[in-house]
Known about the structure:
The chain is mainly alpha-helical. The chain has helices at 37-48, 50-73, 77-105, 107-126, 132-160, 166-196, 204-207, 213-218, 236-242, 245-255, 262-267, 271-281, 285-299, 307-320, 324-339, 342-347, 349-356, 362-368, 370-386, 388-391, 394-416, 423-438, 440-450, 457-485, 487-508, 532-536, and strands at residues 28-30, 33-35.
Amino acid sequence: xxxxxxxxxxxxxxxxxxxxxxxxxxxxxxxxxxxxxxxxxxxxxxxxxxxxxxxxxxxxxxxxxxxxxxxxxxxxxxxxxxxxxxxxxxxxxxxxxxxxxxxxxxxxxxxxxxxxxxxxxxxxxxxxxxxxxxxxxxxxxxxxxxxxxxxxxxxxxxxxxxxxxxxxxxxxxxxxxxxxxxxxxxxxxxxxxxxxxxxxxxxxxxxxxxxxxxxxxxxxxxxxxxxxxxxxxxxxxxxxxxxxxxxxxxxxxxxxxxxxxxxxxxxxxxxxxxxxxxxxxxxxxxxxxxxxxxxxxxxxxxxxxxxxxxxxxxxxxxxxxxxxxxxxxxxxxxxxxxxxxxxxxxxxxxxxxxxxxxxxxxxxxxxxxxxxxxxxxxxxxxxxxxxxxxxxxxxxxxxxxxxxxxxxxxxxxxxxxxxxxxxxxxxxxxxxxxxxxxxxxxxxxxxxxxxxxxxxxxxxxxxxxxxxxxxxxxxxxxxxxxxxxxxxxxxxxxxxxxxxxxxxxxxxxxxxxxxxxxxxxxxxxxxxxxxxxxxxxx
Length: 538
């Protein structure tokens, strides 16, 4: 791959001084049909964010699928942790694959690859024989799709969005993630009602604590495995996993009609195509031309680099150059997201509610588990449309972490003191979900996509996303063992991380609201954001 193609962009697009510069472009002809810039932008956001819906669905579906799988495989706690965490093993490697490919192939083709992997993983799990080995492979394939799209979608949306709306539009991906989680909870509850009615299903560790990992992996028939089919009680999990192939197929077809990232097109010497995309997604020709010129200017310094020299430069830049501080910031943000308990609180919501004794049956517990997710969705929508681009990134992060800390303390008390009413668990979960949705949920993806300078954005965002899922896998792999050792201690630990995270964000995370991507190269909270070119001269 040659990175010298930006050399053809060295000349800037001249800006006309005629009266036409002030005329707003409201309608564009695209492939024979009329579409306003706003319509084109939103069409692109919605179709690309279906990946977020799929990611959310595959994250949330395991909550109920674990209950259904238990009826077939009688899972132990270690086995449950393995099933949950395997998806994140794939998600760790997904961004590492997607980062270099995003630079070579563009964003659209990677989105299509993600859709195909989501479909493949869903079909592998749904049509699996009664063997956890095949289901595990499907979980890893889905994890690869999660990792690839978690990198590409925020990156793609950020590169297409106007600076003044970038936070809101990138956060639409988080809205769809929460919608996917909610859909997975609803579908699991409906499947539980269809297959089991109000019957209570026992937890795996109550039915068979001696199930071996080898039996679970190979799916050995006998006392540990119950034969399942699509229309039997034991086959509810097939429907849980298989349904996600439908939106994946819809997205795959829709991607053909989306534009490529203008920044990627310009970086490959396809200046006119990049300008055309900007004009189709901006209400003003002058704004599109200025933005195109700024992109060209930010890419000029890569003209002299060959592929291997560029790789060496990026490696040095991540360790000692302008990308080091953004990488540190993204790493700490990813740590805070995962080690404040979000993945485990989400995955085991129905387990917490079942253990609290609030409702006796499995279907009731799955239904009531939807309440915290609905709260999370409402607050995510509020945060996306009224907070992130109005109040910025820092204030919601600090406020959200404070509320998360309080809710985690409440959960620690509710699971540690027997006399505390069971409804307190529901209140603690709901407050926690709302606080996360206001802050870390949408804003972490915004920061991953905008902190890094243009020359290292693909690699930086890929590293940040891999680190994000690496921490998620780590937390998911050991949560149940840690929780069984000390339930109140687990939540108290999460509360301590939330407190420390708030301190880090206050002192080190800069405000990026309304700043063009080409002008974001932060060093710290108290240092003014300067242009990439200025930092390269340091």
